[in-house]
Design goal:
Blueprint (H helix, E strand, L loop, with lengths): L2 H4 L3 H6 L3 H4 L15 H11 L3 E6 L2 E4 L2 E4 L2 E5 L6 E4 L1 E9 L5 E14 L3 E15 L2 H5 L12 E11 L4 E12 L8 E13 L5 H9 L4 E13 L4 E11 L3 E10 L3 H12 L13 E11 L3 H11 L4 H16 L5 H16 L3 E6 L5 E2 H10 L3 H6 L1 E5 L3
Antiparallel strand pairs: 1-4, 2-3, 3-6, 4-5, 5-7, 6-7, 7-8, 8-9, 9-10, 10-11, 11-12, 12-13, 13-14, 14-15, 15-16, 15-17, 16-18
Helix pairs in contact: 8-9, 9-10
Length: 397
């Protein structure tokens, strides 16, 4: 896939926030270097165009089709207190396109580090396939040209975030991103997995720390999984699975279908974002919800958590369940539909008795625009339930 096809995908990358993970590339360095290799010169110039200053570049070597740089160090031009370091870089099957963009079949970097006065980030390894780096014109016009980078797969191993202001640290085993960008058009399929995010006890508020202590957990191990498909021609977005899993505790799972988010609409939203503007509501007139599901699923501790909450309130489990159900029933009494009141109350009661899962779903008879939802919610919030066809179910596989 060459540059003419890449331009069709720029809005998709912004929409799925994939560039958040590729932004580590923007924190390498740039400078001229004594080498006759055209790719090396273009690569370093590309980094320089990102506004970075080089303090060290290791030896540049070429072995068959692999270009290697033995380490890079430097800092952003705008702030010399921020430093970065890369142990080694390798670019395989790399070439400079006719339009000045750089294509790298396989990119690898080891021992990556960003060091700031209040923040430090390290990664043991970064591996990217089918990487395209923009030319200078693209960098100066990110909304109307190719994004900061484009790739098929990316994997970052051994991440560690450290906040010096709070003393907190968060290790992550692996971040994996996969884009189906080889089909030459729409639809495009994306998946993101973040594995083994370690959340230490000290990162939680005192009540949550107490709960973790009671459950015998010194830390929380979390995973994030996302799958999505977007057709920029038809405007259809399908997210069949998105989940945040707190192991041994619970998970939150989401699925969503949207219509009306065409390539043009998403590009306009992205352009407004680059100008720090609030997204205009008229851009969302064509965006509509077809279906939505939000589930809370037990991962081993919900029942124990309810037992402990009941004990903390000096009540039996059955009495505590009844009290929570009655509170929910009073809130549901605002719903005009009596049948929905009973459905919601019964779902809450069933879940509190046996907390396996509870799911809030929206299945409107026809796609409902975002602007219509906002308008109805401002005038009559309870009407949203019938408008979207909202249902609440407990312990349904």
């Amino acid at each position: 896939m060459r540059s003419s096809e890449l331009r069709r995908h720029r809005a998709f990358l912004v929409f799925f926030f994939a560039l958040l993970f590729s932004s580590c590339l923007a924190l390498t360095a740039s400078a001229q270097i004594n080498t006759d290799n055209a790719v090396a010169k273009a690569f370093l110039q590309n980094l320089q165009d990102r506004g970075l200053t080089l303090t060290h570049v290791g030896p540049v070597t070429v072995d068959n089709d692999v270009l290697s740089i033995g380490g890079i160090e430097g800092y952003p031009n705008v702030d010399q207190t921020k430093r970065f370091k890369i142990g080694d870089l390798a670019l395989a099957q790399a070439s400079v396109e006719s339009d000045g963009r750089i294509f790298v079949g396989a990119f690898a970097a080891s021992k990556f580090e960003v060091d700031e006065p209040d923040f430090n980030f390290t990664a043991d390894k970064i591996a990217i396939t089918d990487l395209y780096l923009p030319n200078a014109n693209d960098l100066s016009n990110p909304a109307s040209n190719l994004p900061m980078s484009l790739y098929s797969t990316a994997e970052i191993m051994g991440l560690l975030f450290q906040d010096r202001s709070t003393g907190q640290s968060m290790p992550i085993e692996r971040v994996s991103i996969d884009f189906d960008v080889n089909n030459g058009g729409f639809p495009i399929i994306a998946s993101v997995q973040v594995a083994h995010i370690v959340l230490s006890r000290s990162m939680f508020a005192p009540p949550q720390q107490q709960m973790l202590d009671e459950l015998g957990l010194s830390q929380v191990d979390a995973d994030i999984d996302f799958e999505g498909e977007w057709n920029g021609d038809t405007g259809e977005v399908n997210i069949p699975s998105a989940a945040v899993v707190l192991k041994d505790l619970f998970s939150v799972q989401v699925s969503l279908k949207l219509e009306g988010l065409t390539d043009t609409v998403v590009e306009q939203i992205a352009e407004l974002a680059t100008k720090d503007n609030v997204i205009a509501l008229d851009l969302l007139q064509s965006a509509a919800i077809s279906s939505f599901n939000l589930s809370l699923v037990d991962e081993g501790s919900l029942d124990d958590m309810l037992e402990r909450q009941a004990h903390r309130h000096g009540q039996s489990r059955s009495a505590y369940t009844q009290q929570l159900t009655e509170k929910a029933e009073k809130q549901f009494a605002r719903i005009p539909d009596r049948a929905k009141q009973l459905e919601f109350t019964e779902a809450i009661y069933s879940f509190l008795q046996n907390p396996q899962s509870i799911t809030l779903s929206a299945t409107p008879k026809a796609p409902i625009s975002v602007t219509q939802i906002l308008g109805v919610s401002a005038i009559s919030p309870a009407s949203i339930i019938s408008l979207l066809g909202i249902a609440l179910q407990a312990n349904v596989n």
